Amino acid sequence: MVTSLPNLLTLSRILAIPLVVGLFYIDGDAWRWTACVVFSIAGFTDILDGYVARRRNQISSFGRFLDPIADKLLVASVLLMLAAFDRMSLPTIVAAVVILCREILVSGLREYLAEVRVGMPVSRLAKWKTAIQMIAIGFLIVGDSGPPTWPVRLIGETGLWAAALLTLITGWDYWRAGFGHIRRGKG
What homologous superfamily does CATH list for 5-186? Predict the structure, then answer.
């Protein structure tokens, strides 16, 4: 059921990545705002695809597989572009590294646990982390092109640090739960 609406929404998130990345190479305030809009729409599809899948009873193994990959590809590519284009401070790059490392750890843990048929559902706190992270990244994309009276970059960096803190908490929760299965001989 690759062509179901929820799966198409997930695929659109992946297809948006080259557009967002490409917009980093075009100079000008309007292009930063355009990149933010494309990123925001792509981020919104993360909410929408799951809602539509549940509402239409179109939950699929393909969608469960692809959805977290699409999220991680979008976030990782934009965080790398923000770092490459000096749109966040050096200390904030540490927050981005924390986020990326946690994503890799949780992905690997989920893959391992799936082999032994143990599911690891997304926690409510992890959903909050994702929302804060996406909003923060949007602010960082706009950066210095934001309203002059707003500390746009500071808002983005503060949000990314908040997301990194939640990343550590949720990453620890996932690790503890997953490692518990491994210790009990489920892996």
Answer: CDP-alcohol phosphotransferase transmembrane (TM) domain (1.20.120.1760)
18 closest CA partner among 42, 45, 2: 42
Contact call for residues 63 and 122 (beta carbons, < 8 A): no
Determine the Cα–Cα distance for residues 128 and 137; give it in Å rounded to an integer: 14
4: left (phi over 0), alpha (psi -120 to 50) or beta: beta
**Mean pLDDT, the chain, as a whole number?**
90
Note the pLDDT tens digit of each residue in 130-174. Answer: 999 999 999 999 999 999 999 999 999 999 999 999 999 998 988
Please give the structure tokens belonging to residue 186. Answer: 């489920």
Cα(135)–Cα(70) distance, rounded to whole angstroms? 17
Whole-structure pTM value? 0.90
> To which residue do tokens 């284009």 refer?
85
Sorted by sequence, the CB contacts under 8 Å of residue 182 that are 6+ apart come out as 112
- Half-sphere exposure in the Cβ direction for 135 (13 Å, CA): 13
pLDDT digits (tens, 9 = 90+) for 143-154: 999 999 999 999
Q: Spell out the domain ranges in the chain.
A: 5-186
Length of the chain: 187
Tokens of 70: 């699409």
